[in-house]
Amino acid sequence: MKGTIPIKEAAKWLEMDVQTVRLWIRNGVDWGECLPGRGSNLIYIVYAKPFAEKTGYPLEYDPQREGASGEFCTILSDTIERFQALQTETDDSEVWRDCQRMIDSLDLELDAKRKGRFNYAEL
After folding, report:
1. Contact 15/55 with Cβ under 8 angstroms?
2. I need a labelling partner for 29 at 20 to 30 A (CA). Which of 3, 82, 100, 116 fits?
3. How does pLDDT run across 68-120, given as a tens digit for each residue?
4. How far apart are the C-alpha atoms of 2 and 22, rounded to whole Å?
5. Residues 6+ apart with CB under 8 A from 63
6. Model confidence over 43-80: pLDDT tens digits?
7. Residue/partner pairs of 17-25 with CB below 8 Å, 24 or more apart
8. CA-to-CA distance for 79 and 98, rounded, in angstroms?
């Protein structure tokens, strides 16, 4: 888990709009920070651990909470398992290599989907 979460995710969890969360951050909540960006832009950061402690936000990946994204991760996991099963059942080296390529590709996609949920602070 990375140390920040997207501001949209924080707003969704708090059941309020993003602008209200930005106002809270500008007014000094202890789980976020507002920094000067380029020009007149501001960068809003929501720190995962303090936000979770104050609001009960779950830090671990939970496919049930993720909705469609979680369903997609479940489908990817199931597909990887099927390719792994096919790989162990085959004697054909070409089929085995094709399965391995698919597993590697799906593994990368799944890892990106899971990590991507908490890897950045939205500006």
Report:
1. no
2. 116
3. 456 666 777 777 787 788 877 878 888 888 878 888 877 777 776 666 543 33
4. 20
5. 70, 71, 73, 74
6. 889 998 898 888 888 876 554 555 545 666 677 777 77
7. 21/46
8. 14
Which residue is listed with tokens 């479940």? Answer: 74
pTM: 0.48
> How far is Cα 101 from Cα 26, in angstroms, rounded to an integer?
47
What's residue 104's pLDDT? 81
Q: How many whole angstroms separate alpha carbon 44 and alpha carbon 11?
A: 12
**CA angle at residue 122 from 69 to 20, to 5 degrees?**
100
The angle formed by the CA atoms of residues 116, 120 and 122, to the nearest 5 degrees, is 120
Amino acid at 114: R
